[in-house]
Amino acid sequence: MKKLNVNILASFVFAALVLASCGGLDKMVKMAPQVRYEVTPKVLEMHGDSVEATLKVTFPIKYFQKKVILEITPVLKYEGGEKAFKSLTLQGEAVQANNQVVSFTSGGSYSVTSKIAFEEGMRKGTLVARVKATMDKKAGELPEVKIADGTMATALLLEKDAMPIAADDKFVRITTQSKEATINFVINQATILGKELKKEEVQALQNFVAENAAKGQVEFKGVEISAYASPDGPETLNTKLSENRMKNAEQYFAREMKKSKVAGLENEGFILSKATPEDWEGFKKLMQESDIQDKELILRVLSMYSDPVVREKEIKNISAAYEVIAEKILPQLRRSKLSVNIAIIGYSDSTLKVLAVNNPDTLKVEELMYAASLIGDMNTKMAVYQKVATNFADDWRGHNNLGYAYIKLGKLAEAKAALTEAKRLDASNTMVLNNLGVVAHMEGDLKAAQEYYDAAAGAGGQVSYNQALLAVKKSAYENALNLFVSSKYNTFNFALAKLLNYSVTKNADAFDAALGIISKAENQEAANVYYLKAILAARKQDSEMLFNNLRTAIEKDGKYKAYAQNDIEFAQYAADATFKGIVE
Fold first, then answer.
1. Which of 73, 76, 156, 55 is nearest to 124 (CA)?
2. 90 within 8 A of 69, measured Cβ to Cβ
3. What is the C-alpha to C-alpha distance for residues 74 and 80, in angstroms, rounded to an integer?
4. Rounded (10°) CA dihedral 483, 487, 492, 495
5. Distance of CA 319 to CAs 316, 352, 461, 532, Å?
């Protein structure tokens, strides 16, 4: 609390010329030095968009005359104007009115709290008390009395750095692809028939191999061959059949790949082959998918017996069903299955960037999205996102990211249009809602911004950061700090909020905590960062740190020279020769 034993004797002497006939005031004039004015905070502070102050006036005993009315008005005077706070109107015990009554016998303390809208000129001002005295219908105004300085407007340093969010790409540089075909065999035979090689699926596999072998960005990873015999007949025969079917399939496919000049064919393990003498698993699968009579009975046999001989015997005992099985199921199990695996290698980063700028129509959506993320220049990035939005108009990401780029370029109208289209495509998308909030925020519509941010919960730490900025604007510093922590972004604004919260907590640890946040910020060499460090040094009463940081801030941005001259944060250094040498 700032205690000012204000000597207003001269003021009352002046007023006595007007109020000479009011004898009761004479005593008040003589006791005027005993009246105390106290202002909280000691130095007026700007928070949010306003300045709040509490004026407390304390009267001694046997001072306040019973017929007197005093109207005390705090007024902030500054270059270019003045603004009045709410008046404190008090009356003596004999006055018939509705004001607070001051006892003549006991005196007492009386307060009034109010706020005024902040204006830039208030950064350097003086708070005065203007007193109007009334007694027996006669009134006089006393000369104003200085009661405080103003205004500490450090909250004005808040950066407008609301964070938009760009949607991620799903680009995968190396993708895998497989192609399969099945060659069937006659019962008890391992020879590949010509008609099998003419089947559509086998021809498609051959074409797949030939086409990809000719491409420079395709790597063959290998071939898998699985050969089978149906689970009927002697096991020794089926073992031989499955192995021969495997070898014949290997030989056939190796020839085909050699004709297509497949790279890596000679490498060990390139062709992996496996023979299964009796394909009971395949049999079970086909039975489950069939509508054969006694299907459930046959499946029960498979679950009851593991011995293949017993299984075959029990199934054959179901004679009617077995005839259908022999006709429809078993032929499908006499086969070799071929599978070719390739890796498709995408463009390099450098190639993608060139294509995205010079020939974007040749790229797929994920390639364009990824290429845009590689580009540093925001205008070029914007142009690529414009192409995504045009070529892939049904994908909300292109419109969202175009809006993101426009925001970064300060083109808010264009950003809003792009984001509105993104919202049309995906109305509840939290990234889009956050970005619309950023546009509203930057346009000054803080109510709409808050609504968008609240609806965007879960989109990322950027949302918490943006909510923190609004909380700072509302002077809700504790809430802002919690949101900054949640966002995981260490920035200038986070450090500033830590400092501003000192007005609430009066915890001097806030100064070092703010410096700690700054030490983790990305842009530590910015002029405003050095200026904030100078303010923190002033709060810590570290003159050397103050001078060094203020000097650097001004070297980086000359505007801080004039700004510091009117910054009440440095009021106690105003007469210091070193300080004057830096700012003048």
1. 76
2. yes
3. 17
4. 50
5. 6, 65, 69, 93
Assess contact for 528 and 157: CB atoms under 8 A: yes
Burial of 195 (0-12, 13-18, 19+ CB in 10 A): exposed
Which tens digit of pLDDT belongs to each residue from 363-374? Answer: 999 999 999 999
pLDDT of residue 9 exceeding 60: no
Q: Say how far apart CA 372 and CA 465 lie, in whole Å.
A: 24
Structural domains for the chain? 2-152 (2.60.40), 174-345 (3.30.1330.60)
Give the strand pairing for 43-47 and 218-228.
unpaired
| E strand or H helix at 376 | none
HSE, side-chain direction, 13 A CA sphere, residue 404: 26
Q: Using CA atoms, how far apart are residues 447 and 470, in angstroms rounded to an integer? A: 9
- Write the CB contacts of 266 (distance below 8 Å, at least 6 apart in sequence): none
Token pair 């509302």 in the structure block, residue:
474
HSE, side-chain direction, 13 A CA sphere, residue 286: 18
* 75 neighbors 32 (Cβ within 8 angstroms): no
Q: To the nearest 10°, the Cα dihedral for 529, 530, 531, 537?
A: 110
Long-range CB contact pairs, 308-314, < 8 A, 24+: 308/231, 308/235, 308/278, 308/280, 309/235, 311/231, 311/280, 312/231, 312/232
- For the chain, the C-alpha Rg in angstroms (whole number) is 43
Which two tokens mark 354? 């060139």
End-to-end alpha carbon distance in the chain:
32
Displacement of CA 305 from its chain's centroid (Å) = 61
What the block records as the tokens of 293 is: 């009579």
pLDDT digits (tens, 9 = 90+) for 139-195: 888 778 899 998 999 999 999 999 999 999 999 999 999 999 999 999 999 999 999
State the average pLDDT for the chain.
93
Query: What residues have CB less than 8 Å from 376, skipping those under 6 apart?
Result: none
User: What phi and psi values does residue 171 have, to the nearest 5 degrees?
Assistant: -65, 130
State the pLDDT at residue 504: 87
Quote the percentage of the chain above a pLDDT of 90: 83
**136 — alpha (psi -120 to 50), left (phi > 0) or beta?**
left
CA dist 513 and 519 (Å) reads 10
d(CA 482, CA 519): 19
Between 23 and 406, residue with greater pLDDT: 406
Q: Which of 454, 192, 154, 179 is closest to 339 using CA atoms?
A: 179
CB 355 within 8 A of CB 370: no
* Under 8 Å between Cβ of 352 and 310: no
pLDDT level of residue 12 (50, 70, 90 thresholds):
very low
189-246 pLDDT tens trace = 999 999 999 999 999 999 999 999 999 899 999 999 999 999 988 999 999 999 999 9
The dihedral built from the CA positions of residue 569, 572, 574 and 577, taken in this order, carries a sign that is negative
Dihedral sign of CA atoms 240, 242, 247, 251 in order: positive
Strands 125-135, 138-152: pairing is: antiparallel
Q: 83-114: per-residue pLDDT in tens?
A: 999 999 999 999 999 999 999 999 999 999 99
